[in-house]
Amino acid sequence: MSEELYVLHKDVRVKVDAKKTNDWFYSDTVKEHFFSPRNFLRDKHEIDDFDGYGDVGSAACGDRMSMWIKIDKKNDKIIDCKWQTFGCGSAISSTSMLSVMIIENGGMKIDDALKIKPQDIVKRLEELPARKYHCSVLGDKALRAAINDYFRKTKQYNRIVEEGAKVIDTALKITDKDIEEAVLEGATTFEELQKKTKIGVKDKSCIPEAKQLLKFYMEKYFGKEDGKNG
Ligand code: FES
């Protein structure tokens, strides 16, 4: 006997075709981290002697993430991490996993933590629906902001890595960050990118650079140009 599946859409119970919703199923690891998030900040005293703080928002969905890190200064390692978020279940699971990754085995070197990519977190979670990748970017960005905060507080200005936005389409003021967000929201071809952002509609000279950036972000977040995992 086949089970019937329902989802809530705008408060209305809608029947869905299970065969077409496989991409939306979450792995057991995602669910486990969602129900028992690791290193979640429950009491503000837990971060009394922490060394770096980052607070970021996602332009893709308007959610927010705060992260605190404690550093073993002698060994340049992150030895503790706490976080809080107003993000969704995928953001909770992926940040929980990220926090485990950076403090397990005695802590990760700061330089190695800066090399973690969202797809590394997704790999440890044993998959995340492609449309939810931007949720894993939220924790990653908060970690980078917390590390930069630590560098600032300890006057290691040469190690600060700021990610600024560059205008690509001068007519509509569309930046590389807008392209990044569009990719994280599911754009996989230039046509899809243009539909979401209107890039190149007025300023056609920016199209080659926009295509390059599309390719760059597809590889960065999905490991492949066509956006498919594996
Ligand atoms: S963090 Fe906003 S939808 Fe997941």
In short:
The protein is 38% helix and 18% strand.
Low-confidence stretches: 7-11
Helix percent reads 25-40%
The order of strands across the largest sheet is 3-4-5-6
Roughly how many Å is the radius of gyration? Answer: 19 Å
| Mean pLDDT across every amino acid position | 85
CATH class of the largest domain: Alpha Beta
What's the tally of helices?
Answer: 8
Based on CA inertia axes, which overall geometry fits? globular
What summary fits the major beta sheet?
A: 4 strands, antiparallel
What gap, in angstroms, lies between the N and C termini? 32 Å
CATH fold-level label of the largest domain? Sufe protein. Chain: A
Counted beta strands: 8
**What portion of residues belong to β-strands?**
15-25%
**Class from secondary-structure proportions:** alpha+beta
List the bound ligands: FE2/S2 (inorganic) cluster
Instruction: Name the helix and strand elements from N-terminus to C-terminus, one letter apiece.
Output: EEHEEEHEHHHEEHHH
CATH architecture of the largest domain: Alpha-Beta Complex
How many domain modules?
Answer: 2
